[in-house]
Specification:
about 260 residues, alpha/beta, Rossmann fold, five-stranded parallel sheet, 9 strands
């Protein structure tokens, strides 16, 4: 995998590295496809950082590079069509943010356009790269490994709320990492002799139902798993967590409430 500056360099040099025949079909100004599983509201700061990184290499949006944005708003089933649309555009390079779903959609949409991704899981296990040292194919990027820390969050929450007999864990069954997260949480609970209540949610209605269960069963503590869908619902989650006074632990500080 590559570092942050190399990640930006990949974007900046993609047009130059593109085969001559393919570049001849591109517009005069290179186009970057920006595909996110999240929303523009909860990732505005990331877009600012993205533009700043590009500018450090001489690329300014609207001046010598164009950016086509697509936002799935946490609805993963929208990503394949969005990725296909950007490929047809066509874009010079695809960059994906907001976790694994966007990267996987981009990878499925093209085997030729360069893809620079940012994910929370293991890119090798996800099939995005052949290895960390030699990604191979047309995709490379960085992993924040946020999807591999659910057991650690569970243990930390146990330390914060030692009196909790049961800790709930909110997972999205539609996330590619769901089975891994589920296994990690269950093993983590057994390791510290803690009862874990698994709550599944991939829609707003299911989030409401999950918190209704938290209130009914008087679950005193809750882990919100790393997931772009939950990131886009942070305000809703904070409000719901405050109602039953459930100490909530999440991967993003903006989601934490107690």
């Amino acid at each position: 995998m590559i570092g942050r500056r190399e990640f930006i360099t990949l974007l900046g040099t993609a047009a130059a590295a593109w085969p001559l025949a393919a570049r001849a079909q591109q517009p005069a100004m290179p186009v970057i496809g920006y595909l996110s599983a999240r929303s523009p509201d909860d990732t505005a700061h990331l877009v600012v950082a993205f533009r700043k990184g590009l500018s450090e290499y001489g690329f300014v949006e609207g001046r010598n590079v164009a950016i086509e944005y697509r936002w799935a708003l946490g609805q993963y089933d929208r990503l394949p069509a969005m990725a296909a649309e950007l490929v047809r555009r066509p874009v010079t390079v695809l960059t994906t943010t907001g976790g694994d779903p966007a990267a996987l959609a981009a990878k499925a949409a093209t085997s030729t356009i360069p893809i620079a991704f940012s994910v929370g899981g293991d890119p090798v296990k996800l099939g995005l790269a052949a290895s960390f040292n030699r990604p191979g194919g047309n995709a490379t990027g960085i992993s924040l490994l946020t999807g591999s820390l659910e057991a650690k969050r569970l243990g930390l929450l146990r330390e914060l709320v030692p009196q909790a007999a049961t800790i709930g864990v909110l997972l999205n069954p539609k996330l590619a990492l769901f089975e891994t997260q589920l296994s990690d949480v269950q093993e983590g609970g057994r390791a510290i002799n803690l009862q874990v209540q698994i709550l599944r949610a991939s829609t707003d209605q299911e989030i409401d139902a999950a918190f209704a269960t938290v209130a009914q069963q008087r679950i005193a503590a809750l882990v919100v798993a790393s997931d772009p869908f939950f990131d886009t619902r942070r305000e809703k989650l904070v409000v719901l967590a405050a109602c039953p006074r459930c100490t909530t632990f999440a991967n993003l500080r903006r989601l934490a409430a107690s």
